[in-house]
Amino acid sequence: xxxxxxxxxxxxxxxxxxxxxxxxxxxxxxxxxxxxxxxxxxxxxxxxxxxxxxxxxxxxxxxxxxxxxxxxxxxxxxxxxxxxxxxxxxxxxxxxxxxxxxxxxxxxxxxxxxxxxxxxxxxxxxxxxxxxxxxxxxxxxxxxxxxxxxxxxxxxxxxxxxxxxxxxxxxxxxxxxxxxxxxxxxxxxxxxxxxxxxxxxxxxxxxxxxxxxxxxxxxxxxxxxxxxxxxxxxxxxxxxxxxxxxxxxxxxxxxxxxxxxxxxxxxxxxxxxxxxxxxxxxxxxxxxxxxxxxxxxxxxxxxxxxxxxxxxxxxxxxxxxxxxxxxxxxxxxxxxxxxxxxxxxxxxxxxxxxxxxxxxxxxxxxxxxxxxxxxxxxxxxxxx
Length: 384
Ligand code: FES
Ligand SMILES: [Fe+2]
Fold this sequence. Notes:
By secondary structure, this protein is an alpha+beta fold. 24% of the residues lie in helices and 24% in strands.
């Protein structure tokens, strides 16, 4: 465990040991600690399902009693809109009698009847009755016969959930993101389903989060000419670190690729007239919200239980300006940067398993983001 402790002092810190990126015991510990206490994005529909209906869960499940199965970190869950109230609840898709799934597919109704032995629940997850069980105080139903709701929160069209007790209130992190968005038309965001919105990638989930927090590699992996390093003014690159979230941003070389300064808060305004290329938000542990002048690109680096050297990659695009959205490859280089990162992480994956991978150091000037991430993982593993 000593090799997973990362000093808060960047000058002294050694990064997480290489085994943190392939040892199944570390992944199991992460799932019990970090992923039980942080707010996680609830996966939106992907693939053909999203192409058939691109509305987010909050819209799809608008009618009272509407429900749909979802899963987070391979846990079976379902979303259920109340019947008496309009609340959208996230509930375990596991019957409290003998653990049969309750919602096999999308549906709607005032009550939910388990298909294995007929236990009935209302649309708030309360156990009502079951054939063969007489209601009796203290015997049936017990408190644990009702479905235990998970905390959920919304940010724009996105739904977040916590699988255990949240380490911090959602509003603190959501507030940071919202403050940075100024007058951007978040309410106009519409999902634009795209190919490859759900993929399995090489490399541990932390490699991808770390890489996202790493501005140092931009000049090398996304190099000029024709790379991201050419599209942004690298000298203007900023990494703002907060508890549980981070914002990276830089000015665009071509003003056409930047946000209208009037839409962003005053702190992003440049006396020289340069415009912000993107707002790259990272929400610990594994979510990125990338705001561009065309809209929002969401990336999730989801761990796969028991498979530490693979990552489930979710990639959603939401547009508020379809003309700019159409130019996102040529101007904002989405696919190119993605492909360069995926390839780099596959290379690193070979190295970290080689037996010749000492703990790394962080450049105090270039790698405040990676250090912040390693330190947050280290603390999270110890329950902080
Ligand atoms: S498992 Fe649901 S009623 Fe038995
Ligand atoms: Fe990159």
